[in-house]
Amino acid sequence: MSQQEDIRSVINGIYDVAGIKYQYSGLVTEKTAAVVGDIVENIRSCSSSMSWVPRPTGGKATISWVIRNLGGVLSGS
């Protein structure tokens, strides 16, 4: 697999995890690689931060749980 195919695979993996039915087959440039790198770093940062948020009881988030645990983050306060 070439480096360009590897980057396409990462892009398509992100789409897949997000539930987006799309396969990127476009040109892969240095700019593309830089954007993918930024996305991966942001995902890592977010994943690390989310580890501090308590898990919802029962395994499923409710509206009140989301507001209580993420409301301030999502509203920018």
Give a description of the structure:
The chain is mainly alpha-helical and 77 residues long. It has 3 helices and no strands. It has helices spanning 3-17, 30-50, 63-75. The longest helix is centred in the middle third of the chain and has 21 residues, at 30-50.
Spell out the blueprint of helices and strands.
Blueprint lengths: L2 H15 L12 H21 L12 H13 L2
The secondary structure category is mainly alpha
Compute the number of strand runs: 0
Please indicate the count of domains: 1
Average pLDDT number: 80
Regions with pLDDT < 50 over 5+ consecutive residues? none
Largest sheet: none
Shape, per Cα inertia axes: elongated
Write down the secondary-structure element order. HHH
Helical residues, percent: 55-70%
User: What is the percentage of strand-forming residues?
Assistant: under 5%
Q: How big is the Rg?
A: 16 Å
Separate helix tally: 3
Distance N to C terminus: 45 Å
